[in-house]
Design brief:
Layout lengths: L5 E11 L7 E6 L20 E4 L22 E8 L5 E7 L9 H5 L5 E4 L1 E4 H9 L2 H7 L2 E5 L7 H13 L3 E6 L5 H7 L5 E5 L5 H8 L4 H12 L4 E7 L7 H12 L5 E8 L5 H6 L14 H12 L5 E3 L1
Parallel strand pairs: 2-8, 8-9, 9-10, 10-11, 11-12, 12-13
Antiparallel strand pairs: 1-2, 1-7, 3-6, 4-5
């Protein structure tokens, strides 16, 4: 029964206009097998619910401090004096993630919601109740529902049932995917998916693995199988400086996509941006974060024209 199926969701975003045609509501599921260093949603990567901390909400230890006494693992201590956004001295809590097990007790105690949990288990019925509220917008704009991530197909049962119920309610559906899943999983959602938003990070498998942690052979095989099975595609290419923004890389994209272009309704070029950088600090991670200057408008236009020369429909996101 679908009422027993739950998905771990970290956001549901209404009035989304970039995740497929028309006005859409995008359901973001947690968990991804890739680790792209430029990821703008690092909160989507881990499969479990995890603790986040947003410092601009924090009242500080002296004015609050409720989080200090509730952690059963002593993972929260008094931090050094810092400055808040107003330039005032403040003492923030210091969270030791090596001790934290994401139990959420500190988040429940935090009256300012500076500490909060990312990732909520929701049933199909709960999510459909939210989505159906937006159906008039879908009908007016030619929009619908997009299931995204992370990698939503890593929660295949939930994703498949959600797509199926959307179709039963006359809602256009899209799946935003990295393609790094078993073909059988993709095949199981094909009957309920009107459009695949398909990420292509890089055509060189060794470079792809070096950057994201996984090779790309499965990804390329799956997109060809989707095309052969009659699926429709919006191919999404993130344009990352010093990684895949060269003319040679885009000739490789053009040659590959030319083979399946009858199934490609659009190629979206997504220029790298820095909006995800601050999210790593919310996740209390100490890892080195990729930071670069975004590609210029001139370069983006050049790459757009380059792909158009292969007969592909291209839009800069």
């Amino acid at each position: 029964m679908s009422k027993n199926i739950k998905g771990k969701i970290y956001d549901i975003q209404g009035f989304s206009v970039h995740d497929g045609p028309g006005i859409r509501t995008t359901v973001f599921l947690k968990g991804c097998p890739l680790r792209c260093p430029w990821c703008h949603s690092p909160e989507s990567q881990e499969f479990q619910t995890e603790l986040n901390w947003l410092n601009i909400r924090c009242l500080g230890i002296d004015d609050c401090g409720l989080c200090l006494g509730v952690c059963p693992r002593d993972a929260i201590t008094k931090g050094p004096v810092a400055q808040n956004a107003a330039g005032e001295d403040i003492v923030y809590p210091l969270v030791d993630k090596t001790k934290c097990n994401d139990c959420g007790l500190c988040a429940k105690a935090c009256k300012a919601q500076a500490l909060y949990m990312c990732g909520t288990d929701r049933t199909i019925e709960e999510v459909m109740h939210r989505l159906l509220r937006d159906k008039p917008f879908f009908e007016e704009s030619g929009g619908g529902v997009t299931v995204s991530g992370g990698e939503c197909l890593c929660q295949p049962e939930f994703t498949r049932e959600l797509l199926k119920q959307c179709k039963e309610n006359g809602i256009h559906t899209a799946v935003d995917t990295t393609g790094f899943v078993k073909w059988e999983t993709i095949a199981s959602v094909l009957p309920y998916t009107d459009l695949f938003l398909y990420d292509l990070k890089c055509m060189d498998s060794s470079l792809h693995k070096q950057a994201t942690g996984v090779p790309n052979e499965l990804i390329l095989e799956n997109i060809k199988k989707i095309a052969a099975a009659g699926g429709r595609l919006w191919v999404r290419i993130p344009v990352i400086p010093l990684f895949n923004d060269s003319s040679g890389h885009f000739d490789n994209y053009g040659n590959f996509l030319s083979e399946i272009k009858d199934a490609v309704d659009l190629v979206q070029l997504l220029p790298y941006h820095k909006m995800g950088v601050s999210k790593y600090s919310r996740l209390l991670r100490n890892e080195k974060v990729f930071v670069a200057e975004p590609p210029s408008d001139k370069l983006m236009e050049e790459r757009k024209k380059q792909l158009e020369s292969y007969g592909l429909p291209v839009r800069i996101h």
